[in-house]
Amino acid sequence: MNPRLTKSQQRALCSQLGHVKLQLLYKASIHGFTGAAFHQQCDNKGPTVSVGYNASGFVFGGYTSKPFNQSGQYIQDDQAFLFTFKGANVLKYPVTNYTYAVRMISGSGPYFGETLILVYGSRAVAYSCPGRYYSFTAAEMHGNDLQLTECEVYQVQESKVLETPWRTIVWESERRNELMDSIKLYKPAHSSVSQARILLIGPVGAGKSSFFNSINSVFRGHVTSQAIAGSSGTSLTTQFRTYSVKAGRDGKTLPIILCDSMGLESTGAGLDVDDISSILKGHIPDTYQFNPSASLHPEAHGYRKSPELKDKIHCVVYVINASKVSIMPAKLEEKLAAVRTMVNLMGIPQLVLLTKVDEACPLVAEDLRNIYKSQYIRDKVQEVGARLGVPLSCVVPVKNYCEELELDLNCDILLLSAVIQMLRFVDNYFDDLSDRFRNLETKE
Question: Which of 206, 239, 398, 434 has its CA 20 to 30 A from that of 358?
């Protein structure tokens, strides 16, 4: 369920409400253009922003700080307002008689004081009566086009600043240099392996390819885009790719390989679980073209029948969009659980990369150094840990380079810290492998 309200429109609305973010609760095209469907999704959810869209291109709606219910009564709300967008700007119409700010009617959707009603009964229309409890011009607000093409309701979630960061991190250029040097000097704890192989797994659009591009950018000294990345309904990565990182344009290859996989879509398409097994065991070669309808066959061209330790995956990283943790489809959650079970059986350490934290939390968008002071991001880390069944220490929030043209110190430190954590987990993999060999030798 993707919001139709653009990121810039969301930011514009949030700027009117303080340090908050918007979480999509109701989408009429999915849940139904009825009052009953609206109330089922939105009642008792606290402050909300309701948005209507019409064929004339107008985006308009209302905000109430009070939770919706079906009491049939008027609710006082001196903070309520109606709005419309004029370009990138929000035109705001505050309530003029707050005693009648919002009416809670069971048969209809968002109902702002007999002045604006979205989802009127069971019809995709809005009701508008300017001047009654709110003052606005109909032509300016919605162009007198009351036939809705979509209606959405967003929960307004406050972003709290914690007095003490829940993780400590040093935001200094010296720290970035230390992290980069640690990665450059890293050596896998096994003589036959020169590069740690880390597999990135996650749903479409979570930021797997962007993470490689971001790490590559840090070591190149400028923003790069080697791996195909972007926004699409289906996976832009259709091959299994293994990417090495160089320290500078002509620099030394780093002791790490990031393996990019096809998006783990929730139903019918995306990376097959059997293919993941083949990747983990080292059977799948670089540039292998995935076939969503059939897993890799042992007789296929390039299939490694006897992979070496250097070909196998030494750490698995699940890449999850922080903004979509709460709306993760059940089928995707089940698929991730199946992958986790398989990875556990193989004894491979697992980490979760929580991406797009700036889009998820306004405090972080304002200043990336707020990431470990954000209660919202901490809640998301706890939620994704619970959904995927991993400890909180295995969840690392980051921001990839997506729209920037220049590097940012704070972004670099977060990205490099994530790589350091991955390498520590790789060490755990080799330590466990050594322990198992020693135990076998002892038994013999």
Answer: 239
Tokens of 58: 């107008």
**Token pair 């290859």 is at which residue?**
253
Task: Report pTM.
Answer: 0.73
3-state secondary structure of 135: coil
Query: Domain 173-443 falls in which CATH fold?
Result: Rossmann fold (3.40.50)
Distance of CA 152 to the CA centre of its chain: 20
- Identity at 269, one-letter amino acid code: A
- The series of mean pLDDT values per 10 residues for the chain, 444 residues long, is 88 87 92 91 94 93 94 92 92 92 88 84 71 86 90 90 91 96 93 94 90 94 74 58 86 92 66 84 83 69 86 96 87 91 95 94 90 93 94 96 92 97 96 76 58
Return the domain boundaries, the chain.
7-158, 173-443
Q: Which two tokens stand for residue 85?
A: 């967008």
Strand order in the sheet with 116-117: 111-112, 116-117, 127-128
Residue 431's alpha-carbon distances to 188, 347, 391, in angstroms, are 10, 11, 20
CB neighbours of 341 closer than 8 A, spacing ≥ 6? none
Nearest to 70 by CA among 102, 48, 101, 99: 102
End-to-end alpha carbon distance in the chain = 56
